[in-house]
From TrEMBL:
This is Kynureninase. It catalyses: L-kynurenine + H2O = anthranilate + L-alanine + H(+); 3-hydroxy-L-kynurenine + H2O = 3-hydroxyanthranilate + L-alanine + H(+). It comes from Caldimonas mangrovi. GO terms for molecular function: kynureninase activity. Keywords: Hydrolase, Pyridine nucleotide biosynthesis, Pyridoxal phosphate. SUPFAM superfamilies: PLP-dependent transferases (SSF53383). NCBIfam families: kynureninase (TIGR01814). The modification N6-(pyridoxal phosphate)lysine is found at residue 224. The gene is kynU. Its cofactor is pyridoxal 5'-phosphate. Pathway: Amino-acid degradation; L-kynurenine degradation; L-alanine and anthranilate from L-kynurenine: step 1/1; Cofactor biosynthesis; NAD(+) biosynthesis; quinolinate from L-kynurenine: step 2/3. Catalyzes the cleavage of L-kynurenine (L-Kyn) and L-3-hydroxykynurenine (L-3OHKyn) into anthranilic acid (AA) and 3-hydroxyanthranilic acid (3-OHAA), respectively. The lineage of its organism: Bacteria, Pseudomonadati, Pseudomonadota, Betaproteobacteria, Burkholderiales. Pfam families: KYNU_C.
Amino acid sequence: MTTRSDCEFRDQADPLAPLRDQFALPEATIYLDGNSLGARPKATSERLQHLLEQEWGHDLIQSWNTAGWIHLPHRIGNKIARLVGARDNDLVVADSTSVNLYKVLTAAARIQRARSPQRRVIVSERSNFPTDLYIAEGLCEELGWTLRLLEAEEIEANLGPEVAVLMLTQVNYRTGRMFDMAAMTATAHGAGVLTVWDLAHSAGAVPVDLTGSDADFAIGCGYKYLNGGPGAPAFVWVHPRHAGEFSQPLSGWMGHIAPFEFSPHYRPAEGVARYLCGTPPILAMAALECGVDTVLAAEPYGGMAALRAKSIELTELFAQLVEQRCAGHGLAVVSPGDASQRGSQVCLTRTEGGYAIVQALIARGVIGDFRAGDERTPDILRFGFTPLYTRYVDVWDAVEHLREVMVSDEWQRPEFNRRRAVT
Ligand SMILES: *Cc1c(COP(=O)(O)O)cnc(C)c1O
């Protein structure tokens, strides 16, 4: 049986422990929702203060040059590239995840329309994140294509000659189940299908090798494990083999080969720069860079591989403690037991009361979240583990709170059973 002092001992022996000090975390909070909104880096306040007072307040428009504002999409892009196995200058920061998905899906669709016009189907996973499905639906309507939704285990056998694009999120937002990106991409390519990967729950959470896995297009989120702040800009990547040929539909001036020539005709910039559309949001970019830097700070300690090793230990400890200490309360772990198929989260389910249990935990300072199920998928109590700032004792204490909430029936109180606008 694991004890709390075992967990304290593991924290003392953890080489990554000092990285927690990079974050401004409230004293009494156990934050297990970094998969939805990463915690705030301490450095962000000072950086934004300087940006406001000096770069914007004093230097005004000159800062596009003197403070390098214009290069931020590339500079931060190259930092994120180090975390996801991309080469320098194959990845940029721009817009939101949803908008970038529209760009890359269209780019992939355009390539397929030129190569194999009979392919007019986009395949995705039925439980993919809704915005991904909605964006694909919208594009299909525009193109007269079909979006086909399958269960994860049905996908490989259903990539027929009518399929143009396979669009997947590597780590499922509900269950935490993780696809093998290289294997899935190889299968897709064998069937003549291009791949679009959403790394929203991967970037900064699990090691990713974009170039090595031979994916075609990828996008990812800045405000989850990259700690960029609420609504942070997202990123977008293209495999070098498409870099010269792809085109995207939001052909704005920042993606023009020479934006400051103010030419009346669009000519795309070289490579990944053509993904840019309008003027980058500099305040949000600066905050994102502080967030990305907190992940890069793990490089001297072994980088993503070390973070992943700790994340596996944290998720395994949580699942094991829930099974040991909360047995008999109807809670079941739905995330894969095999760490190689699991992202940095553990999801529980219960036939009733999931929402209220999460609310009762939040009232105790243990922040997770709840995702409602439907006729095919169960309700989910979701707990994300960010190895940069989550301690082993946090895991122990969180499970102890969960146990108390269950044993005392605290979750049945009316105040925990009222739904709020954002779950
Ligand atoms: C978080 C998330 C998004 C978020 O998209 P936004 O445009 O930032 O709202 C998209 N896709 C997936 C899979 C996500 O997990």
